[in-house]
Write the C-alpha cells for this entry.
Amino acid sequence: MNLIVNRSIQICMILVIPFTLSAQKKDITQVEKSMELLKQLMMEPSLDGLNKIVDDKLSYGHSSGFVENKASFINKLVSGDSDFVTIDNTDQEIIINGKTALVRNILSATTNDKGVAGQIKLKILYVWVKQKKAWKLLGRQAVKIIN
C-alpha cells in the first residue's frame, strides 16, 4: 500500500513540477517585457501607455526619500519635468511569488530634468502585481549606491 501511495506522489510531482516551472518562466518573461515597456515609457512618455502599466495605488519612491503617487509620477514624465534621455538596466533579478513579482536592478540613466542635464546610477526595487493576465507596477524604491 505504501508503495502505491509513494508512486502516486512521485507521478503527481513529475506532472506538476514541469507545469509550475513553465508557468513561472512565462511570468518571468512577462515581467521582463513589462520592465522593458516601463523603460521605454519613461524615455518616451505616453499617458495611455503609462496608465495601462501602472497600478492606481502606485508608490514611487526616489532615492531622496520623496514618494510619488500614480498621478504625480505620470504627470512629471508626460510634462517633461522628469526627462529620461537614456536608461540602462543591469544586474536584473526577478522573483515571482504568486501574483507578485519583485525586480531588483541597477538603473544608469542620463536625464534632462527641466532642461538640466544629469546622470544617475541607482539600485532599484520594483514591485509588480498581476491583474487580469497583465503585470502592473505597484511600487518602486530607489536607493543611492554607496561605494
